[in-house]
């Protein structure tokens, strides 16, 4: 049995939610480096995130599930609007670049705990 990495997550919560979703669809999912990342919030950066892996035989089923999850997320994202221009086109999960403190917080992993967005139209960063 060979395992393939299908997603990499910045935190344990997102990784476990993804694992539960795959398992509810009948696909066995294994998380790698979850214990190391769970010990300290900064370790996930050092190890490259928490890896979700599945059996290579389940590849086609996982592709279908990922497309379904992407469609669900896209449907949710249309309700998020930029507070400046009210555009629904945005980047998500960005690390803020406003001010030099943001770079330090991003390096320490503190800024990654919130859902950050950046508008594609006007460039405004918002939470």
Write the layout of secondary structure elements.
Blueprint: E1 3-9, H1 12-24, E2 29-32, H2 34-39, H3 43-47, E3 50-55, H4 59-77, E4 90-92, H5 99-108, E5 117-119, E6 125-126
Antiparallel strand pairs: 1-3, 2-3, 4-5, 5-6
Essential attributes:
3-stranded antiparallel beta sheet, 127 residues, alpha+beta, flat
Describe the fold and architecture.
There is one protein chain. With 127 residues, the chain is of the alpha+beta class. Helix content is 42%, strand content 20%. It contains 5 helices and 6 strands, in the order βαβααβαβαββ. It has helices spanning 12-24, 34-39, 43-47, 59-77, 99-108, and strands at 3-9, 29-32, 50-55, 90-92, 117-119, 125-126. A 3-stranded antiparallel beta sheet has the order 1-3-2. It is flat. The model has no long low-confidence stretch (mean pLDDT 81).
Summarize it.
Helices cover 42% and strands 20% of the residues. It is built from five helices and six strands.
Principal-axis shape:
flat
Largest sheet: 3 strands, antiparallel
N→C terminal distance = 42 Å
Strand order of the largest sheet: 1-3-2
Question: Strand pairing plus helix content: what structural class?
Answer: alpha+beta
Residues in helices, as a percent range: 40-55%
Q: List the uncertain runs.
A: none
Count the beta strands.
6
What percentage of amino acids are in beta strands?
A: 15-25%
Radius of gyration: 17 Å
State mean pLDDT (0 to 100 scale): 81
SSE sequence, one letter per element: EHEHHEHEHEE
Number of helices: 5
């Amino acid at each position: 049995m060979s395992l393939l990495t299908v997603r990499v997550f910045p935190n344990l919560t997102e990784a476990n939610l993804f694992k539960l979703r795959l398992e509810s669809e009948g696909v066995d999912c294994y998380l790698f480096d979850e214990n190391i990342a769970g010990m300290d919030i900064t370790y996930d950066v050092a190890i490259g995130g928490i890896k979700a892996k599945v059996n290579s035989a389940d590849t086609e089923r996982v592709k279908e599930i990922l497309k379904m999850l992407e469609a669900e997320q896209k449907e949710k994202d249309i309700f998020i609007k930029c507070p400046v221009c009210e555009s629904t086109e945005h980047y998500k999960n960005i690390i803020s670049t406003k001010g030099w403190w943001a770079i330090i917080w991003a390096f320490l992993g503190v800024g990654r705990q919130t859902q950050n967005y950046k508008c594609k139209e006007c460039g405004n960063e918002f939470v």
